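Researcher: Let's try something more involved. This one mixes different molecule types, so please make sure each is placed in the same coordinate frame as the others.
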Amino acid sequence: MRWVLYLAMVVLYVLHNDLWYWDDAQLVLGLPVGLTYHIFFCVVVAGLMGLLVRYAWPRDLDGEAE
Amino acid sequence: MTLFIIFSYLILVLVIGAWSHRLFRGTGEDYFVASRSIGPFLLLMSLFGTNMTAFSILGASGEAYNRGIGVFGLMGSASAFVIPCVFFVVGTRVWALGKRHGFLTQAQFFRQRWDSDGLGLLLFVVLVALVVPYLLIGIMGGGITLNQMTDGWMPEWVGGLVIGGVVLLYVCYGGLRGTAWANAFQTLVFMTLGAVAFYVIVGKMGGLAGAMDRVAQIHPELLVRGEGIHPINWLTYTCIPLSAGMFPHIFMHWMTAKSARSFRWPLILYPICVAVVWVPSVVLGVLGHVSFSDLQGPAANSVMVRLIDLHAPGILAGLLAAGVLAAVMSSLDSQVLAIGTMFTQDIVRHYGFHDQMSEKQQVFYGRVFVIGILVIAYVLSLVSNRSIFGLAVWSFSGFAALFPVMVAAVFWKRSTKAGATAAVVSVAVFWIYFFVQGWQTPGYTVGGTGVLPAAVMVVVSSLVLVVVSFVTRPPKQDVIDMFFSDRHKT
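Model: All components are placed in one shared frame. Result:
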């Protein structure tokens, strides 16, 4: 699972470079699509971070005395 | 009325700083890293608030005024992705090492990691030098906001002085605990009031659809990235948020975490918080053309404050301006505390001056050093007539280029002090070279190719680190044991 999530990080990095919307001025949800796309991108990143925290957390660190 | 609200807000921040002093436990560790007791909520607010600066509010809106909606992807969503990854991969491990060995500053961490006093001193000088332009944009942002909101009655130089003074007061009194509480409060203020500002201003412009239509008619190029942003420029901009892994103030906030678990919610919520702050800033920057058609050069820094002043009624305008100041001060405070701590720990205590000084004298000289650095930043703010966004990118580029050194410290046993030192020197040399080449050129890229200097410096410092490490003697086993032996496979 961990390696799948690491791979997902790479895929997200690639998806950040949305050349396909570079010159597209259509409005989606009232905003230019190039902006709306990156707002959704942030939401997806939050989801991925949630999965990383759940499935790829460095559990050895939890042992540090509080 | 506007001025009354702004000054009431500044007094409120001072009161919070003073109140948090009541929680002070009377130890150095409590003053510098809040006894490593900060939980997830306060950690999120302080990490996020510290990273959201005049750059994210005034700089982003000013840059969007000139370059359009692409600015959000260029820095906003790039930061939303890269920064939590940095916290996840590096921040949690650095926190654990700091907790285990009692580190308070980066120089302590790197000095012990490679058993090198010289490297610690070199990093101290380089990090403080790179913080100066970062402080500078905060002071500029405070000055611009107060100047605009008083219709020019308060000159920018007075505004910058007021903001710097308020921050200095509550940091000196409250230490990192006070800074964390003031940051949390101010982060909530600027996130809430940012949303209110967006709603009110867009409403006054006739709604989002109407305002976007008007921009589409007068400046359609601002609704796409088009020719305004080069794809290579876009790609290399993703190096810039790596800087969060080397900011001295972020390092100190990492150290405050109560446990590794404290990082979990901040990691998840950080990207959402970035969108909440950056989207209104960028959209209002673009919509600024509807009300202000001809803001030239650095004048675009003030587009957000001008919109507030024009569209929000008196009391609300004061509150919204306070929100902008909250963003400015929530970063300045951590930076000021970080350089004060670095001076006290890395110079005064490390070199034994504390044996000849009382505790009071150490604190006094620490504050004199901080004031000295603030004065340098303040004087530079008086003569600097640049884009806030551009100035910040220069500062971030240096920090980002140092990030490979942090990665090597945490993950690469074979890295050597010679390798790390050579990498830091390469960053200093290349940064100065690129700055001399490009500081007068807005949006400077290497040879006009679109490649940011930060990307070149990251590659160069990585190569230098690897090559020099391989040709020099491996570090001592006891040093490796100190940093790696307790680590279990995850």
